[in-house]
Amino acid sequence: MELTPFHIAIPVRDIDESRDFYGAKMGLSEGRSSSDWIDFNMFGHQFVTHLNPAIGKQGKIAQITNPVDGHGVPIPHCGVVLPFDTWREFADRVSGFIEEFIIEPYIRFEGQAGEQGTMFFADPSGNALEFKGFRDIKKDLFAK
């Protein structure tokens, strides 16, 4: 089956703040937008931020965590699987502005089937994001 782009929409506390974070800092290009939402191109996928005034200007999305490999993985989270070199470049980019990673970039399952780079961080509204990098996505993404 041919892989097609996903569409995901998330709530944010401030549209201008999301434009700065996802556009200026993360480097995602902006598509259509209004005063209440913005479409971003997240590595070929449609990622949309929608204003949710109920969060409040200083508020954040509540998170729970699930223990995985000695880390507290935030639930829910979303992100993109990338080729390894792209993941490494992206990790370097976000390391320049993310003050506190939820899980810092590291290599998981090193030397094993499914080896991957992974990192978790949150946007200013508290939405958790994970980005993974594989050397061979087709072979390793679902490796056991």
UniProtKB/TrEMBL annotation:
<dbReference type="InterPro" id="IPR029068">
    <property type="entry name" value="Glyas_Bleomycin-R_OHBP_Dase"/>
</dbReference>
<dbReference type="Pfam" id="PF00903">
    <property type="entry name" value="Glyoxalase"/>
</dbReference>
<protein>
    <submittedName>
        <fullName>Glyoxalase</fullName>
    </submittedName>
</protein>
<dbReference type="InterPro" id="IPR037523">
    <property type="entry name" value="VOC_core"/>
</dbReference>
<dbReference type="InterPro" id="IPR004360">
    <property type="entry name" value="Glyas_Fos-R_dOase_dom"/>
</dbReference>
<feature type="domain" description="VOC">
    <location>
        <begin position="4"/>
        <end position="134"/>
    </location>
</feature>
